[in-house]
Amino acid sequence: MVASSSTPQGTGERPNIIYVMADDMGWGDPGCYGATKIPTPHMDRLAGEGVRCTDAHSSSAVCTPSRYGALTGRYCWRTSLKRWVLMGLSPPLLSPERVTVASFLREHGYATAAVGKWHLGLGWPTRDGAEPQPDASNVDFEQPLTGGPNTVGFDYFFGISASLDMPPYCFIENDRTVGVPSLEKDPYNAQQRPGPMVPGWKDEEVDTTFADKACWFMDQHVRRHPDVPFFLWLTPSAPHRPCVPPPFTQGRSQAGARGDMVCVVDWVVGRVIETLDRLGVRDNTLLIVTSDNGARLTCHDGNDYGHKSCGDWRGQKADAWDGGHREPFIARWPGRIEPGTVCDDTICLIDLMATCADVIGEDLPDGAAPDSVSALPALLGRSEGRPAREFVIHHSGDGMFAIRQGKWKLIEGLGSGGFSEPRRPEPGPDDPPGQLYDMEADPAESRNLWAERPEIVRQLRDTLERVRQAPH
Predict the structure, then answer these.
(1) Which fold is adopted by the domain 16-387?
(2) What is the pLDDT of residues 299-344, one digit of tens each?
(3) Of the four listed, 28, 162, 268, 295, which is most buried by Cβ atoms within 10 Å?
(4) Looking at domain 393-469, which CATH architecture does it have?
């Protein structure tokens, strides 16, 4: 862990912290990042009242490893998960012994809640003692789950096990499913895998229910324990496929069903803002809105509707190119973050843990968050020309590594390493084995300088190898 780099808060009053992480929302989706076909008034308002970051990155270009990194301050490739993601019935990836943002803040007096998509594995009981079948046919939904959010620092959990295209299709509250998934999913929407659902399940009600539960948690907590700060990890399922918008956002965008689901994320943000205002805790709350990885370039119907979900960055979700991991990142903390500011510093979602430690003025335990660096000076506009990070490491869906240091970005291989073609082409006799880009002169990653700048290649590869070999 890199030590905190700004002075502690020093006010004697620790802020509430809310971290809203959308699922597959791209850098180019909110209006404050240039979108013209998707109305996002609440995120735009938040940017006007706080800071909008232009160079924020997830630690991975896909869901599970990005979420693991954000919660632990540790790159997920240090675990057994080296590529792609967990499924809805996968076992827990997080060990109860691993310090998380939630367990750290709870240790320092915070109430903690997780509401939304989990996607870090759960211990599902089975009737035959075997591993859960992909269709959940041997899962005993009457028994409690193990290894979930309540075991890694969260006082309260309400959510779904993974993405909304993975069974089982049911809500989970703490360690129990809400109802028993006893019917086959009906209807199957775009890309949904087969499996059971609870009677009455509706995909379009998932995120509205999350918003209700998040606001209920804040309301109950502030009314009952007004002197106790809270941490809320709020993770909507939108705009990840299947993209089934509720009636009140259908047709709101000009970017198809996926665009309408970005409107759902914005609506959730609006509900949070309204609740903070109503409870009178706006001024003592650090509110962050971001996404777990890059976006798909098209709606599930294959149409992009003229909208650039990843902005002008190359690639998309799962790719080592910047479209795969460059994220929208907006933060508001009244009285601390200057309204209407823009931060161009390179930061990473893995920095949440060190940033929270900096916010409350406490040191992290030994061994915790080994890859996390405080982004607080950058968010407060106090970096004074010193980069928050010496470097940041990226990881594609297929496990391809990349490293960014200053203006230079190196990718250990050819192609995207993800969804975009070419994915992993073999180099020809005269081709370089990897990619090197000058991100200042060539932000589109169009001119490979690997052969022209061997000294930069050597420097970046040495740094990457040193980090990979570190015993974390």
Answers:
(1) Alkaline Phosphatase, subunit A (3.40.720)
(2) 989 999 999 999 999 999 999 999 999 999 999 999 999 999 999 9
(3) 295
(4) 2-Layer Sandwich (3.30)
